[in-house]
Amino acid sequence: MTEIKTAFDTEITSVDNEKSLQDLKVSYLGKKGRVTGLMKEMRNLSKEERPEYGQKVNELRTHIDGVINEKSRVLEDAALNEKLKTEKIDVTLPGRTFNIGSAHPLGRIVEDIEDFFVGLGYEIKEGYEVETDYYNFEALNLPKSHPARDMQDSFYISEEMLLRTHTSPVQARVLGEQDGKGPVKIICPGKVYRRDSDDATHSHQFTQIEGLVVDKNIRMSDLKGTLELFAKEIFGDEREIRLRPSYFPFTEPSVEVDISCFKCKGAGCNVCKQSGWIEILGSGMVHPNVLEMAGFDPEEYSGFAFGMGPDRIAMLKYGIEDIRHFYTNNLSFINQFKSTEDRGDI
């Protein structure tokens, strides 16, 4: 054993790299190594001799293992020092520039609208972009022969399936799940599709957010108060609204909602077409037929509904003249909004 220890101590002094060190370790401590071979000699010893012999072999193994570990640390330190000598860092070089994105103006408007109505206790409900004819039209008081269907030129997939033309089917489905019992208080954001020629103000795909409230004793004044708060939240505290009679098959009475022009303060300009008012959405009281088809008693329950286009609202708020900017992924357009994260307009 003394000879093996002396041989090892001599050999390790000439080791100068990790590979040589590993080879030396295998030659002494490996399965066929010299120290392992000593253990096999125990079979030739008596029981009295084995404990002392085994202890000496273990001491030799511990010595060799400790020296190898220490040598490994020395070699690692030497390699690191050599690397530090050859590699240099120029601390005067400029740092890397990281481009940080910004919220899309359309996505920002949708989130603002959602946050406002969630704050009023509304739930956000989403539905299918591929809808049945029943929920897209019939459940909303638009039977197959109804002339108002011509107002929404649709993408039909089959005779009974189409890309939804509005998010109202979500309202119809939610009402149908209530078993004729209120209250219902939801907004329904999502993409909708209509056969339309794309231009500066029209798109075959656009975003819509609709709202619905159904409960006992819901009145037109509740609708007006809600929309007044909404207009002030999105367009500023000075905004006023006006309601104009209109027609929608699923509401009665129906109204268009205008806000006072935020650019000219009502004096008349190119934004409001010299009228002092800007149309932003349609609304009205839920038609009794819609309530009845969903299982509600129109004598007990009433409600109001509204629908708006976030695309149009974003165009008005941020002064965007072409709706196609929202969908063409033009970074020069999107980057304009980095400096407007905390501002109400451009």
UniProtKB/TrEMBL annotation:
Annotated family: Belongs to the class-II aminoacyl-tRNA synthetase family. Phe-tRNA synthetase alpha subunit type 1 subfamily.
Alphabetic keyword roster: Aminoacyl-tRNA synthetase, ATP-binding, Cytoplasm, Ligase, Magnesium, Metal-binding, Nucleotide-binding, Protein biosynthesis
Catalytic activity entry: tRNA(Phe) + L-phenylalanine + ATP = L-phenylalanyl-tRNA(Phe) + AMP + diphosphate + H(+)
Residue span, Aminoacyl-transfer RNA synthetases class-II family profile domain: 108-316
UniProt-recorded name of the protein: Phenylalanine--tRNA ligase alpha subunit
Pfam families: Phe_tRNA-synt_N, tRNA-synt_2d
Assembly: Tetramer of two alpha and two beta subunits.
Top-level taxonomic group: Bacteria
Subcellular locations according to the entry: Cytoplasm
Cofactor(s) listed: Mg(2+)
